Amino acid sequence: MKEIVIISGKGGTGKTSLTASFAYLAGTDVVLADCDVDAADMHLLMKPDFATEEAFFSGKIASIIQDDCIKCGKCATVCRFNAIHIIEDQYVVDPLNCEGCGYCARVCPTETIVNESPKVGDWYVSTIKTSGTMVHAKLNIGADNSGKLVAKVKNEARQRAKDLQKELILVDGSPGIGCPVVSSLTGASFVVLITEPSVSGLHDLKRVYQLVKNFNLRSGCIINKADINKLKSKDIKAFLKENEISLISELPYNEQFTAAMTLGKTIVEVDNNHLTELIAEAWKSIINKYI
Question: DSSP letters along 84-110, please?
Answer without folding.
Answer: EEEETTEEEE-TTT-----HHHHH-TT
